[in-house]
Amino acid sequence: MDQKKPIAKSKSAGKTDGIESSLLRCEVSANSGEWIKPSSCEKFHITADAKMPEISFEFKTSASPPYDLEWSIRWIVQSCKQAKNKPRFKPKHSKTYILQGGGKLNDKKWAVNLDGQIVGGELTVNIKAGEDKFRRTVFILGTEPGKELVSTYLDSAPDADLADLVKKIFKQETNFTHFYTDEMPLVSFDNGYGLGQATIPVPTYEQVWNWKKHADNILSIVKSKRKSAKKYLSQDGRLYSQDQLDLETLAFYNGANYHYHEWDLKLKAWVVNKNILCDPKESNKGWNVTKEENKDKSLDDLRKNKKSKPIYTGRCYAEHIKNAQ
User: Fold this and answer.
1) Average pLDDT over residues 259-281
2) Please, which residues bridge with residue 99 across strands?
3) Rounded Cα gap, residues 162 and 217, in angstroms
4) Which of 57, 150, 271, 307 is 20 to 30 A (C-alpha) from 298?
């Protein structure tokens, strides 16, 4: 992990999330003013059903209202290993999600509402009451929804006809896991987020933290990939099966630099693309066997031959998911 970019760091840091080199380090000395609640560096959790926790900030002052409120929540993206309870590390492209707001208070308390969004990270609240200044930081973390809750949500979505495909993607990518053991969203080394390892387009702050918004986003992406698959398979009036459409959609989802199917002129039918030999031990790794350095080689030969450069393709991604069912 990049030690230079914790959310906050100090020799007087009082609390972390319990994982060595954690993203979340609370600088106790940065808090100011007389607060009734919440406690400095207190943790709150988004519910498994993707609802914000009830958080109330309350302070003491003799100054008369109105009071000036400013709030900011941020999360510095760090990748996590597949193994549990390991320190995070810097991804390929570092990113920080930030959401800010403010307003006037007529009371000495504020019930947290982050513009109606479900997001987590380090929440810092600043209040000015006359000459008094208040500052307090707390953490908002996630709660794993689990396979049953996610599946039920997908089945009830407007694009429920795509639910089975999205379930296969979630199973393949993360085994229906959205949060890491530190209760923050999963992030792969190449900036894939959450259940479906969303990469492009880069998900919004809420699509990273709110698993329902994330699922909606993946449904939308799969819907667009299905359109691309249909266009490819139906060219020149060609016919295709539902299974062929699903497999081609999965190939497009992972990046269809090689299609799952190719048209056989003799059979006048779609057949499996035999130009790619997939590694069954990898999710999307294979070799283009039409290339000279890969011709007439077994899978073991391809793995051992340094000249046989593997490719990562939706063709093998779809095959891997098919064989895993």
Assistant:
1) 96
2) 73
3) 12
4) 271
Find the helix packing angle between 211-233 and 147-155, rounded to 10°.
60
Task: Provide the token pair at 262.
Answer: 């190719």
**SS3 helix, strand, coil % of the chain, rounded to 5?**
30, 25, 50
Quick check: helix, strand or coil at residue 244?
helix
DSSP annotation string for 165-190: HHHHHHHHHHSS--B-TTSSB-B-TT
**Token pair in block for residue 46:** 């988004």
Please state, rounded to an integer, the average pLDDT across all residues of the chain: 90
Which residue bears the tokens 């702050």?
205
Say what the pLDDT of residue 25 is.
63
Q: Which 3 state secondary structure label does DSSP give 228?
A: helix
CB atoms within 10 A of CB 317: 28
- 121 close to 140: Cβ distance less than 8 angstroms: yes
What is the sign, positive or negative, of the torsion defined by CA atoms of 143, 147, 148, 152?
Answer: positive
276 phi and psi, to 5 degrees?
-115, 125
d(CA 182, CA 75): 13
Query: What six digits make up the tokens of 296?
Result: 């007439």
Instruction: Mention every residue, 6+ apart, whose C-beta is less than 8 A from residue 194.
Output: 174, 178, 185, 186, 203, 207, 208, 211, 214
Mean pLDDT of 102-126: 97
Q: Over the stretch 37-46, which tens digit does the pLDDT of each residue have?
A: 999 999 999 9
How wide is the angle at C-alpha 273 spanned by C-alphas 285 and 233, nearest 5°? 115
Question: What is the SS3 string spanning 1-18?
Answer: CCCCCCCCCCCCCCCECC
As a whole number of angstroms, the distance between CA 281 and CA 166 comes to: 22
CA distance 36 to 59: 5
Once rounded to an integer, what is the mean pLDDT over residues 52-63?
A: 97
Structure tokens at 213: 């918004």
Rounded CA-CA distance 86/291 in Å is 40
**Which domains, from first to last, does the chain contain?**
28-141 (2.60.40), 234-325 (no CATH)
